[in-house]
Amino acid sequence: MRHRNSGRKLGRNASHRAALFNNLVTSLLTYGRIETTEAKAKELRRFADQTISWGVSVHALVAKGEKVNATERAKVIHARRMARKTVMTRQALERLFGELGTHFASRKGGYTRMLKTRTRKGDAAPMALVELVGIGQPS
């Protein structure tokens, strides 16, 4: 029985699953939209929303720039370090705390959207698009 065991295993061990979701979240933050299987997309939303919430939580402090005191600076550093556990590239981390943090500041969750798209030709896996709500593709 799977009592109190949330999440899908996706046929991977724990470290492989963690690496998979870290890479998917990084790609989602970098490109704004990715295509993956439905099962991965449903799980990805949990990780992506949790990571984006770190950028949203300190967006006001980041916007103040150099005018923050020591405790506020510590909050920003803590948020960046927590997000860095998931986000693998500096480019995606900068986008998270710059553009995305301010964009999603007025929202209380629900930063991603999943759209079912097609069936993959090779193995008939149901595919889905995962995209950031209200964000176009980066230029």
Spatial extent as radius of gyration: 16 Å
Q: What general outline do the C-alpha atoms trace?
A: globular
- Average pLDDT level: 92
How far apart are the termini? 47 Å
Task: Please provide the count of β strands.
Answer: 3
SSE order and pairing:
Blueprint: H1 14-31, E1 33-37, H2 38-57, H3 59-64, H4 70-84, H5 90-103, E2 112-119, E3 126-132
Antiparallel strand pairs: 1-3, 2-3
For this entry, give a set of tags:
139 residues, alpha+beta, 3-stranded antiparallel sheet, 5 helices, 14% strand
Provide an overview of this structure.
- By secondary structure, the chain is α+β, with helices and mostly antiparallel strands.
- It is 53% helix and 14% strand.
- It is built from 5 helices and 3 strands.
- The protein has helices spanning 14-31, 38-57, 59-64, 70-84, 90-103, and strands at residues 33-37, 112-119, 126-132.
- The chain has a 3-stranded antiparallel β-sheet.
- The longest helix has 20 residues, at 38-57.
- The N and C termini lie far apart (47 Å).
Summarize this structure briefly.
The protein has helices at 14-31, 38-57, 59-64, 70-84, 90-103; strands at 33-37, 112-119, 126-132. The protein has 139 residues and is of the alpha+beta class.
